[in-house]
Amino acid sequence: MGFQHLLVSDIDGTLLRDGQATPGLKALKRLFQTHSDTVALVYATGRSIASTLRLVEKGILPPPQAIAPFVGTEVWLPGWYPSREYSRMLEQGWHPIRIQRLIREKLALRTQEARFQSYFKLSYFLEDATLLPQLKALLQQHRLQAKIVYSCGEYLDIIPVRAGKASAVRFLCTRWQIEHQNVLACGDSGNDVDMLTVPDTCNVAVGNLEEELQTLAGSGRFYVAELPYAGGVLEGAAAFDFWPPTEERTDTATP
């Protein structure tokens, strides 16, 4: 693949609202058609691969060049098969059964539905954020390596320490030989934090950002859009002059 740029975006709360297209998404689709030879589109989402592909098949989302579902614990490549290389990297030091047992015995957290779980993603409900330090201390005490992803004030994901949306971005940049400064990452909530803090990338929080992202404002190459959802993605792309030049210039700012 000869991609020079990569746009990686969260889905829910960033491109979609309640599963529906948001203002600006049609313009974004047109831009990807115009730049299909040079710009790769990647979805980094909490959704499963099946749920994400259904949105693409229905035409709600434009076709991507890769998908990093379940908060970056998997990477699916064209033809829609999971990267074994990425999975092998995550397996190192990952002990999900021990983590599940520890949480059941010490914290008794309520688990999310089975469809939100996977081998590399243990998902719970947690409305009391003050328990997060206790959870981190428990994992350290039992020498269990894991990354804690907390978002929207209630969703807790425990994933391998080498996993995450940022890890998926780095993996794809290496695979496609794309420089970090040519990456635009877009999100709205806490499970996007690591993706929006990759060094040298261009990072955009859409206007409807959750509280977890407020602390990033003003740090590094981080842009907080005024427009919400897909319109904010377009606004951020224009702010970073992200789109590579084409023979015929297109409108890059109108949602």
Structural overview:
The structure is a single chain. The protein is of the alpha/beta class. The chain has two domains: 5-83 and 163-239, Rossmann fold; 93-159, Hypothetical Protein Ta0175, Chain: A, domain 2, CATH 3.90.1070. Helix content is 29%, strand content 20%. It contains eight helices and 14 strands. The chain has helices at residues 25-34, 49-57, 69-72, 84-91, 96-106, 132-141, 165-176, 229-239; strands at 5-9, 16-17, 20-21, 39-44, 66-68, 76-77, 81-82, 110-111, 122-125, 147-151, 155-159, 183-187, 202-205, 222-224. The strands form four sheets. Strands 5-4-1-12-13-14 form a six-stranded parallel beta sheet, with helices on both faces. The protein has a four-stranded antiparallel beta sheet with strand order 8-9-11-10, with no helix packed on it. Strand 2 and strand 3 (20-21) form a beta hairpin. The longest helix is centred in the last third of the chain and has 12 residues, at 165-176. The protein is globular and about 60 Å long.
- Radius of gyration, taken over Cα atoms and rounded to an integer in Å: 18 Å
Rough outline: globular
Under CATH, the topology of the largest domain can be stated as Rossmann fold
What strand order characterises the main sheet?
A: 5-4-1-12-13-14
Q: What is the terminal-to-terminal distance?
A: 29 Å
Strand content: 15-25%
Helical percentage: 25-40%
Based on the coordinates given, report the CATH architecture of the largest domain: 3-Layer(aba) Sandwich
Q: Residue-averaged pLDDT, rounded?
A: 93
Number of strands: 14
Please, what is the CATH homologous superfamily of the largest domain? HAD superfamily/HAD-like
Q: How many separate domains make up the residues?
A: 2
